[in-house]
Here is the input.
Amino acid sequence: MSGEPKWIPTSSYIKETRLYQWMKKLGFDDYDAFLNASTDDIAWFWKEAEKALGIEWFHPYTETVNLSQGIPWPKWYVGGKLNVVHNAVHKWAEKENTKDAPALKWEGEDGEVRAYTYQELKKAIAQAASGLRQLGLQKGDVVTLYMPMIPETVIAMMAISQLGAIFSPTFSGYGAEAVATRMNASESKMLITADGFLRRGKAVPMKKEADEAARRTPTLEKMIVIERLGSDVSWDDKKDVAWSEMMKTGGASPTPDVASLPSDAPMMLIYTSGTTGTPKGTVHTHAGFPIKSAFDAGMCMDVRPGDTLFWFTDMGWMMGPFLVYGSLLNGASLLMYEGSPDYPAPDRLWQVTSDHEVTHVGISPTLIRSLMKHGEEHVTRHSLSRLKAMASTGEPWNPEPWKWLFETVGKSRIPIINYSGGTEISGGILGNVLVKPITPITFNTAIPGMAAAVYNEEGKPVTGEVGELVLTKPWVGMTNGFWKEKERYENTYWSRFPDVWVHGDWAIQDEEGYWTITGRSDDILNIAGKRLGPAEMESALVEHEAVREAGTIGIPHDVKGEEAICFVVLQDEYTFTDELEKELIALCGEKLGKALRPSAIFPVDDLPKTRNAKVMRRAIKAAFLNKNAGDLSSLENPEAVEHIRQLGKTFKKTN
Here is the structure.
């Protein structure tokens, strides 16, 4: 059902992976037996996982997990004390063989490059922590980070953690209202931002938006401004502080100790957009997010010391912090890139990957679809010889871009690690491990430690049919509720089936054990009683040579319940005609069955996407039906929504 494997690891390759070597150490040589053991006894598994990652504790824990408050509220590593800064930076900076190893590399869109060894990064973090303490930051205070992908972003995160305060990263492309909403929800005491950053050759005036957000946040006391561009910005001497001045003050002051914190001490708040209402503040701890993301990167993606992990993302999305902890807790180096993946030329992503000798690169399917159109010459002009794995997250794959990435970029030798989870997960639920064959667009396993299943509407586990992706046991990294919204958290994930986390994705697991995500469960189409994941129809459409990208939604229909409406971005050399629409509708019928053919297909210049190139289907649906889509502040191209809104009005008049 899942198709023939395209990447098959050799026996010698398998034995060299960190995952296999760890399995053998624990007494397993069969992966499936190990996977079952990882969820049969979660206390044993997560104790062994933190040991395998070399987590160092200031005070040892006495119990791996305590479920006395119920499965939705586990307590992990009870009695233990630690700090993420020690495990991510200090322990490597204090060892002779790793102190001078590269920890952080950065390239700006203008070509500027900076790098820090572990020792240098430790020193910069200490200066920043001292400077923040001088400004009044205390344990438990919340600091919002509204920053581009620059080294100071990582330094600020770690400095805040060193003091035992809490950071809340927000998307660098947000406007003032979206930033203020999150700052007020978290009652932020400080905001760290930049005067601006570069995006497609233009200066983005970040301080201007930050000023407006600050005016709307009564709890805010200080705004620290990084001089990324050195541009003239408005200044409030009572509130604004230059990063350079703060670092100078910090360098002249005693270095604060790394705070020894309980395992469940909050480290980070990330706000996720809701379909309605205010964003949800996921709460992540010093022993949660870092350990889960480091485990997934280290054991599942085989990141190790000497490697370089690069994910094209933003610190306001989950994969930004994942990039930081997934690399540093494993003693590897992380690469940050400030700009666009295709500017000033379509080969920029591959140039950055090559120049910095990246071993693990993370992208999204939509990003690959956008790069495919430029042709393979932009890939082949760069040496990707150091590349060991390509990872993807954010949305389901279509077969054609997956094939292009595997064959054109990876030369049919580099595995694609399909990876899916979420902000509330701290990493992945499903993935591709390197000890098993990989087939196109699927996942070859649930991530070890994740008790994943597919449930039907009655709450029964099913194989071979689409259902809700669920988790039946807690895991390290599970959000510790929503910030000051206990009931909303329980209603969101735990209200449908007793003691079962319902993730919100439709998935299917076939008889061979391969998993496929077909879309968000609130995106699913139900046409005349037949359930259809939008990705299935989108995959059919992009098989046509004229179609570059596609988006599918379901809208109400008097007879069928729902009907499918599709939106396509055409290749440059094609024009949309009635004949082409008929061809595409027929193609969908051929692939999916006549009953599931879309009622209409519309050409658009672009689909609504987030900064990390994820198509936002609920924005498409809400616009087409002329309804409120909830929080759309993460959209990169809001003009695409308005175009679709106008199409919806026209469609309504003619039907």
About this structure: The domain at 134-262 is CATH 3.40.50.980 (Rossmann fold). The mean pLDDT is 93. DSSP finds 21 helices and 31 strands in the chain.
